[in-house]
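Subject line: Sequence and fold of a protein, written as structure tokens
Enclosed: The protein record, placed directly beneath this head.
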Amino acid sequence: MPTIRRATADDLETVIELRMAFLRESKPDVREWEPILQATRQYVSDKLPAGEFLVWFAEEDGQVVGTAGLVFFHRPPTSPSSGLHAYVMNMYTLPAWRRQGIATALLQHVIEYAKSHSAGRVYLHALDTGRALYQRLGFEPCTSEMSLRL
């Protein structure tokens, strides 16, 4: 089983590196990566130290082999809950380490963290490669969400 630890400001470059690896793999049609890298660097540099973007690493023998990110947000409550929700992002395992339970361990850890902070719901965007894992852990498709790119 991997060791799961929360990333700190000292881990900025590793967070950025893994985020970019995830994006390159999930968005193969992108041609210009430098602006995305710079925007990612700015986001992580601002949000990770402030605790607004939480990141965990899975480590094997001291090597980071997987990662998961989490942000909290509030919506007006529609039930007796607080309206606090969580969004999982950047679930990524290095290719050589896949199918070994690393993503499962990371996601279970992130879910427990969200529960311990009274989040009423956890959301994520599922790529086809992760859908079975998410369903196995109880995630259900939400077909009512829509978005508008601005």
Remarks:
- Residues 3-136 form a domain with the Aminopeptidase fold (CATH 3.40.630.30).
- Helices lie at 12-26, 34-50, 102-116, 131-136.
